[in-house]
Amino acid sequence: EKRGVVYIGHIPFGFYEQQMRSYFAQFGSVTRVRVSRSPKTGRPRGYAFVEFLEPEVAEIVAETMNNYLLFDRLLVC
């Protein structure tokens, strides 16, 4: 089964897995959220991957959220 994955860059500090899952659920079914973290410190690296059940939803999110201002940060998709 094919899923849609979106890269989200420049994520604001404090906007982690739980917040991302809740926020992106407005677009469609979120099946997985993975925030990249430093292996040494465990701190977020500022980007994440959000997986959606439908690939079409992922395309819409990538187009809609690219350059979207969220908590004083411009997101990159």
TrEMBL record:
MF (Gene Ontology): RNA binding
Keywords recorded for this protein, A-Z: Nucleus, RNA-binding
Domain of life, source organism: Eukaryota
Domain RRM: 4-77
CDD domains: RRM_NIFK_like (cd12307)
Localization (cell): Nucleus, Nucleolus
GO cellular component labels: nucleolus
InterPro entries, sorted: Nucleotide-bd_a/b_plait_sf, RBD_domain_sf, RRM_dom
Keyword Amino-acid biosynthesis: no
Keyword Repeat applies: no
Family matches, as PANTHER family: MKI67 FHA DOMAIN-INTERACTING NUCLEOLAR PHOSPHOPROTEIN
Record protein name field: RRM domain-containing protein
Source species: Monosiga brevicollis (Choanoflagellate)
Lineage: Eukaryota, Choanoflagellata, Craspedida, Salpingoecidae, Monosiga
